[in-house]
Design brief:
Layout: H1 32-42, E1 53-61, E2 64-70, H2 85-99, H3 126-130, H4 149-155, H5 162-167, H6 183-197, H7 202-214, E3 223-224, E4 238-239, H8 242-253, E5 257-258, E6 261-262, H9 268-272, E7 291-292, E8 300-304, E9 308-313, E10 318-325, H10 331-342
Antiparallel strand pairs: 1-2, 1-10, 3-4, 5-6, 7-8, 8-9, 9-10
């Protein structure tokens, strides 16, 4: 297996962005002409056909905010859709509870629906869930009119208790034998997080999230959402400002440490970015609730529906956040655009 790119330490003398982002400038070593062309294209008055709408861009390097750009009436203070970027926030919550000794990712997951002695789902571990390798049947399809478990879970019959809906799905493959991206999987994990944290309501759950993660790193704008059962909808709903998503990316860039305090257990970020075995797929490489290689080899990212991205790029000591409204067929172009933006800066 290829060695992981080392995670850079926070630069000495640069304040942590818990309150405000330290300001920086585009370095002279950057390819400024290329960067200008890329930004002018994405933020044109009329959204370009290849990328769709780009609403916000934040670039952080060496702990400083180098550049941010907003389209039309979008602003730095508003919250942007997370969609599946929330999955990586859920992964962080798991890490906090692993650090507390309240969750073991290699033990069978304590999912109530799977506890019969003859239920083969009982063998599914939290690790397999985090790696989208549980084997559970789940159709991740967003096009109206097509069979879709994710739409049924988020908007229709399963929305009152999303984890129960997802956990009630049968096995389609033996656990660990097939990779399949599933928002239902994440909501099962989110319920396990709530159980381990002792959250008996949505208010308890949000208090845990804020005290142990969001407030620690200054994500004051974050707005997690919960279903009627009181479970964080960890698959899809933790809206925040672009600057706050950059704070979350910075936590992972700094190996789970924030201003001298270890928020995530040692090795948890490496676990997130260690590749999962996958059968041949065109969806890209996956780690543990983080995607891999978006902005070049060694990078890892939170990816959300319609083009929401937080890319962590260790070899450039950089975080890039992009929000927008991108159609599925434009998605590869947006990923290539983010990679091209990153390449304007020296490694």
């Amino acid at each position: 297996m290829t060695a992981l790119v080392p995670l850079p330490p926070h630069p000495e003398g640069v304040a942590w962005p818990t309150q405000e982002w330290p300001q920086g400038a585009i370095p002279s070593s950057a390819n400024r002409a290329r960067l200008s062309d890329l930004l002018d294209h994405a933020f044109a008055k009329n959204a370009p056909a290849d990328l769709g709408e780009t609403h916000a861009l934040v670039i952080v390097q060496h702990g400083r905010l180098l550049l941010e750009r907003y389209w039309r009436d979008f602003t730095p203070t508003q919250t942007y859709k997370s969609w599946s970027m929330a999955k990586s926030i859920t992964q962080a919550l798991v890490g906090i509870l692993v650090k507390d000794g309240k969750l073991d990712i290699h033990a069978p997951a304590a999912v109530p629906e799977w506890q019969s002695d003859d239920d083969p789902r009982k063998a599914i571990t939290l690790d397999l869930l985090l790696r989208m390798s549980s084997g559970l049947a789940f159709v991740e399809e967003y096009v109206p009119g097509k069979v879709s478990d994710v739409r049924e879970m988020l908007f229709f019959g399963g929305k009152a208790d999303m984890a129960h809906y997802a956990a009630s799905r049968p096995l389609e493959y033996p656990p660990g034998s097939f990779w399949s991206y599933s928002s239902g999987t994440t909501n099962i994990i989110a319920r396990l997080v709530g159980q381990a944290a002792g959250a008996h309501s949505a208010a308890d759950y949000e208090a845990f999230m804020r005290s142990r993660l969001l407030d620690k790193i200054g994500m004051k704008s974050a707005r997690p959402k919960f279903d009627a059962a009181g479970t964080f909808i960890g698959s899809s709903y933790c809206f925040a400002s672009a600057r706050d998503f950059a704070r979350f990316g910075t936590l992972y860039l700094r190996d789970g440490v924030w201003d001298g305090e270890r928020i995530l257990p040692e090795g948890w970020v490496d676990y997130a970015r260690t590749p999962t075995w996958q059968q041949p797929t065109d969806q890209g490489r996956y780690g543990a609730h983080w995607w891999l290689d978006l902005a070049g080899p060694g990078s890892f990212s939170c990816n959300g529906y319609e083009g929401q991205f937080t890319a962590v790029i260790p070899d450039r000591d950089m975080v890039i956040v992009r929000h927008g409204a991108t159609q599925a067929e434009q998605g590869p172009n947006v990923k290539a655009w983010i990679k091209a933006v990153a390449e304007c800066f020296s490694a």
